[in-house]
Amino acid sequence: xxxxxxxxxxxxxxxxxxxxxxxxxxxxxxxxxxxxxxxxxxxxxxxxxxxxxxxxxxxxxxxxxxxxxxxxxxxxxxxxxxxxxxxxxxxxxxxxxxxxxxxxxxxxxxxxxxxxxxxxxxxxxxxxxxxxxxxxxxxxxxxxxxxxxxxxxxxxxxxxxxxxxxxxxxxxxxxxxxxxxxxxxxxxxxxxxxxxxxxxxxxxxxxxxxxxxxxxxxxxxxxxxxxxxxxxxxxxxxxxxxxxxxxxxxxxxxxxxxxxxxxxxxxxxxxxxxxxxxxxxxxxxxxxxxxxxxxxxxxxxxxxxxxxxxxxxxxxxxxxxxxxxxxxxxxxxxxxxxxx
Length: 340
Hints:
By secondary structure, the chain is α/β, with parallel strands linked by helices.
């Protein structure tokens, strides 16, 4: 950054490149597009949600409240990216529930979009196993939805627009670079290295294992916070829908315990969305490495720059257990609980 440049000005210019992709593609409503470039964003949170409930209406309302112009997606290619990191039938709170994926697909299909579901599991080389163990494969068959294996697709190289890490560029799968809109659909979880994993961290799964290994070792060696920020800044049109109904706390993102929250969170700015999720989990977003990096260039995380839609976040706060490690303890707001 030019030392003479003020922080808010830097956010605006970078935001043109990031969320500006949504506005330039005509995917935001007029009022939302008018707000960009800017340092504000809207986040929608719904409580009392169930997997057998009215998820379609919740997701549709949330996207609309956050400024997505649904009818503008007619004829567009939408890629839904759930979290299927290492699915197990015994740990359903680890991965995005199939009902969330099917409901989101119905919303975008109703708007006339061509919907594909894609994932490159970080720990599983056999993606077919991941689809079976997560239950997502059966749901896709029932819903007539196509699947893209992002670990093994043809790839395209894109310049690293974040440059937080030393990586000059990133290989991205064909389905990702050809999508008009990528929808990050994470599970709301703690993470034993970076504190929280939600919409931004979930995009590790768009990076192909065939190029970066399992579990995306090249990214890990270049710094998790830095590469999470790089990936998000390199993808031009991304929004998020968080499965916060049955969540994971403690030793996430794989070995933690189940925690029921009953929430669905939606946003067109992933830093703002993840910051709100972190606050509800009892964590301080400004202390989470990749959110701090993103706040400088990609989108707002400060509470006073996020317009809350649906439920207010404060009454929903229920601190998640975090591992008793100093670097994780410092992420907690007052009142959190430690586990070993």
